[in-house]
Structure formats: structure tokens, C-alpha cells
Amino acid sequence: MERKSAGDFPQELLDLFDRYVHGDIGRRDFLEGAKKFAVGGLTATGIWESLRPNYAWAQQVAKDDSRIKTENLAVPSPQGNGSISGYLVRPAKGGKLPGVLVVHENRGLNPYIQDVARRLGAQNFVAFAPDGLTSVGGYPGDDEKGGQLFGKVDRAKMTEDFLAAARWLKARSDCTGKVGVVGFCFGGGIANTLAVRMGADLAAAVPFYGSQAAAADAAKIKAPLLLQYASLDKRINDGWPAYEEALKANRVTYTAHMYEGANHGFHNDTTPRYDEAAAKLAWQRTLDFFNQHLRG
Question: Half-sphere exposure of residue 180, counting CA atoms within 13 Å on the CB side?
């Protein structure tokens, strides 16, 4: 399939797709709304197909890259769903290194998120990407089905699963005990939540376009935050002013970046919403932030 970018689609259509992805409308309603953009032989279904992830584009670090070792394993989560499975990536050279928890979008542990974990492993972090869909059979290999399964998992228990995974990573013998979290979309919200829940046990958090923690909980945040937002992402950005006010009031260390002209999901290189310039800049800032706060 020919790769398209956000500029190939009207913003109204991208916003409609965003509502579909986040469960505000169903597929049928999206297709109905997309009909007005189906011109020149293009169908609404064709538009839907062109906006969906193409995981052939996802791999920046190969699964068999000689710099890393990968492993699938399960982590106990007694306060959550019993256990949570995930994808562990370590540098091949070994030694004690900082850990980074990688938290997926609202589709489960898909190939894009696995690749993000490999990118971190190649940068000398111990990365663990848990699958919040573990209790319903795990990521099904398809984002559409993953989204449906996601709605069936108890959200509070899933949060406990990610908390258990972060604590497990921190306690590993090959981890220095310094752990950060990076999350995207739903995972960005989890990154904010873990900053609240873990307090000083978390060394750094990088939420990409994630829902903000409650202002009343900001005082519990001890980790420095790097907050990455897309300027066209009104749904998420509406919550930022109150959150920023709370972070300032509680003297939380934070840096926020707003990427102009970027859509929600701009870091995900498998969809047309991917913005290469914004994604590369945001990722370099993420690596610099983790190197600053997790090493030494």
C-alpha cells in the first residue's frame, strides 16, 4: 500500500478517525461520516483502510538486531489480573542498566510498541513493554480486534498490572533500580498515572499525548516529566492548562513540548498521522531526558 501522510487527508477526516480510534464512535459511524470525502473513485472503506496501521512500516530495529536480546515473559500482578505478559529487550552486552517501561496505545502490544522497546534496548536501556490485553488473551494481531478486547478489560486492574510491571522491572538484577516510563495515547495516560502512584520510586516519565492525572494528585508526583503534545489534538490538549497549573503549584519538575501541525499519534510510524520531523525530535528529546535522569 502506498504510504500516505496526514497532509493527504482533510483534518476533519483525521479528527473523525481519532474519534473512532478512541471509541467515541463505531466503525459504521466512521464510514458514514467518511462518505463525504469519498470522491474520485475512493470509497469510505478505502479511506478507512488507508488510515489503519500498516505494520510493514513499523520496524526501525530488527528483531534479530545483534545489539539486543529479546524475550517474552510474564510478570506477577496479584492486585491486578494475576499476571501480565510482555516483551523484554536488553542490550546484548549485559551489565546493570536503567529500565524503561513502554506502555502501548488502546490496542495492546502491537508491532509498533515492540519496536519502540527495541529502539530503547539498542540505546542501552532494559526495556519492558507489557501487554494490557494479557487477561483477554493478549494482542490478537489486529488493531481492530485489539480495540474491541481493550474495552473488555477492567481498567483499574489493568492499571495495577502496569504498576506491577514497573516495580518488577525496577527490582530486576540487571536493572540499576532507576526506572522511567514512556507511554503513547492510553499509555501516555498510564505514564502520568504511574508518576502519581510510584512517587519517588519512578525516576522519569514521558507521556506522549496522554490524558492528564487529576490536578489533586499532582502533589504525589516526584519524577520529572517530559510531556509531548500535538497541536491538533484538541481532545487531549483541553486537559493541559489545568494540569500545568497543578504541576506548577506543586513544584513538579516538568518540560512540555507542543508539536505544531502534528496530530494525535504523530510518533506512530505505521499510520498516516505519523509526522516524521515531530516524531524524530520528540524521540531524541525522550532519549536525552532518560539519559539525564536515569543514568549516574
Answer: 25
